[in-house]
Amino acid sequence: MSLQQLYIHPVKSLRPISLSSAILTPTGIPHDRRYMLFKHNPSASDPANQLQRMTVTYFAELGLFTQSLSEADDGKFTVTYNPPPGAEREKTQLGLEFDPDVRALEEMEVDLHGSKTRAMDMGREVNGWFSDCFGWDVICVYMPKGSTRQVLGNLAPKAVADGTKEGGSSNSWFSTLTAYVPESLKGKEEGEDEEGITFADCAPYLVVTEESVRDVSSRLPDGAEMDVTKFRPNIVLEGAGEAYEEDFWGAISILPSHAANGDRMDEESSEVEILLTQNCIRCQSLNIDYTNGTYANTEEGAVLKKLMKDRRVDQAKKYSPVFGRYGFLGGKGEGRGGVVHVGDEVRLSKRNGERTTFCMCGLSL
Question: Would you say 10 and 17 are in contact if contact means Cβ atoms under 8 Å apart?
Answer without folding.
Answer: yes
